[in-house]
Amino acid sequence: MNAQTALDQVSTQGKFIRKDSVFRDWVNKAEGSRFKPEANRYALYVSKACPWANRCLHFLSLKGLEHAIDVYSVHPTWGDTKPQVDGHRGWHFAEEGANVPGVTTDGLNGCKTMRDLYDLAVKGVWDKSAFTTPVLWCKQEATIVNNESSEICRMLNSEFEDVARNKGVDLYPPELADKVKELERWVYNDINNGVYKCGFATSQGAYEEASAALFAALDRVEEILGGTRYLAGDSLTGVDVWLFNTLVRFDPVYVVYFKTCKRTISSYHNITNYIRDLYQTRGLGKDVDMWNIRTHYFTSHPKLNPYGIVPVMPDGVDYAAAHDRATREYSSSKRT
Ligand SMILES: N[C@@H](CCC(=O)N[C@@H](CS)C(=O)NCC(=O)O)C(=O)O
């Protein structure tokens, strides 16, 4: 049995190498498609702590799909999943009757853990990789359609248009496709996954390399945001949602936990204001659950934090504070 978590995905040089997600089917409208976009046919399993799952929740709300796809969310602290079989620790759902903020039971399938859900999906024992969130679940076939957040985001953006309340919202507009794709490449490698490369590295060299790439990328973001309101220009795109989910966790968690301490995000003027803008003006704040976020990281990996102590929240993190993004002049607009 190969019951892994992301913490096990480390090379012999101590580099964190994330494994590819395994379930890669698509919901689409095409004739003969196995998974058609229909209201009440799919569920999204998330952890509110998980940046990958959280970005799917943001797409769900930006597109106005909450009424059509139900959401189940796991407890932030990993626990034993099959103690009689192996030592794996992973995501659990809330116990019946427990009242944990932002956490639910698996009201759909009655699973106790995400591992049980993966077993249910394959109607046996899932032994190929970690039991990760997010999961897009098909109720009709009782299986996982997809467990790769970048793809779930794209499906939510474009495939559920007929049932979406916010029709016409397009976070991947065709005219920005190349630009967004190029931004996603380095935002994913150096920032979204970059913080994990710092935090899960097991050698000094691997950590320093990841840290250098991370802060070079953040400097680049700071510069871009001096010129435009969003990463790809004047409109919010998917890559902003990706970046936002790492940024909101940065000072409250990663600076301490993943040793991404060369600079804090609050020391970057444009990035700080950009987070506040997305949090408030674009409504992404509604799906940011700081208790789940901080509890998860600090209490789930005994290897990294043996006593599970959650450090005091640093001063100066205030995503609800006023921002200057709507009123400032951008160098891109000056040029036009
Ligand atoms: N490629 C996946 C990565 C998802 C992922 O790593 N999720 C983490 C939580 S942040 C997880 O569920 N980890 C469980 C584990 O490693 O066992 C995606 O983007 O959807």
UniProtKB/TrEMBL annotation:
<feature type="binding site">
    <location>
        <position position="91"/>
    </location>
    <ligand>
        <name>glutathione</name>
    </ligand>
</feature>
<feature type="binding site">
    <location>
        <begin position="148"/>
        <end position="149"/>
    </location>
    <ligand>
        <name>glutathione</name>
    </ligand>
</feature>
<dbReference type="Pfam" id="PF13409">
    <property type="entry name" value="GST_N_2"/>
</dbReference>
<feature type="site" description="Lowers pKa of active site Cys">
    <location>
        <position position="254"/>
    </location>
</feature>
<feature type="active site" description="Proton donor/acceptor">
    <location>
        <position position="196"/>
    </location>
</feature>
<dbReference type="InterPro" id="IPR004045">
    <property type="entry name" value="Glutathione_S-Trfase_N"/>
</dbReference>
<feature type="active site" description="Nucleophile">
    <location>
        <position position="50"/>
    </location>
</feature>
<dbReference type="GO" id="GO:0005737">
    <property type="term" value="C:cytoplasm"/>
</dbReference>
<dbReference type="InterPro" id="IPR040079">
    <property type="entry name" value="Glutathione_S-Trfase"/>
</dbReference>
<feature type="domain" description="GST N-terminal">
    <location>
        <begin position="49"/>
        <end position="158"/>
    </location>
</feature>
<dbReference type="InterPro" id="IPR016639">
    <property type="entry name" value="GST_Omega/GSH"/>
</dbReference>
<dbReference type="InterPro" id="IPR036282">
    <property type="entry name" value="Glutathione-S-Trfase_C_sf"/>
</dbReference>
<feature type="site" description="Lowers pKa of active site Cys">
    <location>
        <position position="297"/>
    </location>
</feature>
<dbReference type="GO" id="GO:0004364">
    <property type="term" value="F:glutathione transferase activity"/>
</dbReference>
<dbReference type="InterPro" id="IPR047047">
    <property type="entry name" value="GST_Omega-like_C"/>
</dbReference>
<dbReference type="Pfam" id="PF13410">
    <property type="entry name" value="GST_C_2"/>
</dbReference>
<dbReference type="InterPro" id="IPR036249">
    <property type="entry name" value="Thioredoxin-like_sf"/>
</dbReference>
<protein>
    <submittedName>
        <fullName>Glutathionyl-hydroquinone reductase</fullName>
    </submittedName>
</protein>
